[in-house]
Design goal:
By secondary structure, the protein is α/β, with parallel strands linked by helices. It has helices spanning 3-12, 16-20, 248-251, 255-258, 262-265, 283-300, 316-326, 344-351, 370-386, 391-397, 417-421, 424-432, and strands spanning 39-47, 50-59, 74-79, 94-96, 99-105, 121-126, 136-140, 147-150, 157-160, 164-165, 177-179, 185-187, 201-207, 210-217, 228-234, 272-276, 303-313, 333-337, 357-362, 398-403.
Length: 433
């Protein structure tokens, strides 16, 4: 038989690869159109203390039979590294995740009800309480305080332990074999899907030679003729811009994305969220730049000027105190979590506008002493009374909540935003001012 004709016949039978492949490839599972895992994509979620891989979507070449799937069909492994506690070397320490639900879908995304829909994707949901799966990592340490970023090369991998079949043609039996179970690890192949985070727009604000990256989110049915409340998120020092970590303020912890989730806020009200990254150069200059951004953003978007709120994490408090002192009336109210102490001068100037403030702090905060929170509440209340506010009203205008260790669902006692954002009544208080 002529060589060309032989090659044609073998190709039709799917045997060319078997004849020309090196011997070392013989043990590998079949690949190519219609065989094996076609791709693996991570799906993330932002939990209270940051973004994690919440599920993986495993792609096949045909609609998958969901009746043969269960949590034992797949093993998902990931790094146990957590930037809040672990040295960067632990990024290479891998452990199994806990699989909670497995179902089919017609797109790369999770189904809230966990029920299968006809599709080529198998969604493997993972327990949020697992130590593994955090996406945020240390970026740089130019000073004693590091910055963080989203890991661009997530180590998540999937093993398909059991056979996966196509949907049977007549509704009975397994259907044809799509991928044979094996011990082969499949790394991520598709671009990670980040619900909510990916819905934010990224932009840069330029003023006076300073550059301020920021992200913002408009309601899905945004109407420029309406007036929406605006929540300004002022992140911690580690989420400051370092040239390599654009957008990390959305993923490192919950405050930015929480306002898009009724289960967090306790309301379906549409809110605009503005989340600038600090420049790590000092509060006066940064606060002035942030104020200019907020004012320009209000001019170009449908913002209710009587409903502009600040919510801070750690270092972000320094910008809020300075902004409220130098630009009275800009913020309708503020939520300050695990922050720095307000100065007596700032308190006096803030009191002139009687801005409602809720301060929260961890009793055993290991970075910023709890005295910072207590003192800030006392200084502000005294300043409000000195400005003519009744003491009882001052107590209501300046609220203070201190969290013991058991209030934290993760043991980072500096991160007072955790229990604060797990309490919808606090977020409702802010929006109701």
């Amino acid at each position: 038989m002529p060589t060309r004709r032989l090659a044609t016949v073998l190709a039709a039978a799917g045997l060319v690869g078997a004849l020309i492949a090196p011997a070392s490839a013989a043990a590998r599972p079949a690949r190519g159109p219609g065989t094996g895992v076609q791709g693996v994509t991570a799906i993330t979620d932002v939990y209270t203390y940051g973004q994690k891989v919440a599920a993986v979507a495993v792609e096949y070449s045909a609609i998958v039979n969901p009746r043969t799937l269960d949590p034992d069909t797949f093993t998902v492994t990931d790094s146990v590294y957590n930037f809040r506690y672990n040295p960067i070397e632990d990024l290479d320490e891998i452990a199994d995740r806990t699989v909670t639900r497995v179902y089919t879908n017609d797109e790369i995304g999770t189904n809230p009800d966990g029920r299968s829909r006809p599709g080529r994707y198998v969604i493997v949901e993972l327990a949020p309480t697992d130590p593994g799966g955090n996406t945020v990592m240390v970026s740089r340490c130019p000073t004693a305080l590091c910055t963080v970023k989203v890991n661009p090369d997530l180590p998540t991998e999937v093993v398909q332990n059991e056979n996966v079949y196509a949907r049977p043609g007549h509704g009975a039996g397994h259907g044809r074999l799509l991928a044979r179970g094996s011990s082969t690890s499949h790394p991520l192949t598709g671009e990670t899907v980040n619900p909510l985070v990916d819905d934010f727009a990224q932009d840069t604000y330029l003023r006076g030679g300073m550059v301020l990256p920021y992200a913002y989110h408009l309601p899905e049915d945004y109407d420029p003729n309406r007036a929406y409340p605006l929540v300004v998120i002022l992140p911690g020092h580690g989420m400051g811009w370092d040239g390599d970590n654009l957008g990390v303020q959305l993923a490192a912890d919950i405050p930015a994305t929480a306002w898009l989730r009724p289960d967090r806020t306790g309301t379906d009200e549409d809110v605009i969220v503005l989340a600038p990254q600090n420049q790590r150069v000092g509060a006066p200059a940064e606060a002035a730049l942030m104020v200019a951004l907020v004012e320009d953003f209000m001019d170009s978007h449908a913002v209710d000027p009587d409903r502009v709120y600040a919510s801070t994490v750690s270092y972000g408090s320094t910008l809020a105190w300075e902004a409220m002192a130098t630009r009275p009336g800009l913020f309708t109210a503020a939520l300050v979590t695990g922050g720095f102490r307000v100065s007596a001068d700032q308190a006096t100037r803030i009191a002139a506008d009687r801005t409602p403030v809720w301060i929260t702090h961890g009793t055993n905060d290991h970075l910023l002493p709890v005295a910072y929170g207590r003192d800030s509440a006392d200084l502000l209340r005294d300043a409000y009374v000195a400005a003519g506010v009744d003491p009882a009203e001052a107590e209501d205008l300046v609220r203070y909540t201190e969290y013991a260790n058991d209030a934290f669902s993760e043991p980072d006692y500096h991160a007072a935003f955790g229990p604060s954002y797990e309490d919808a009544s606090i977020l409702r208080w802010l929006l109701d001012r």
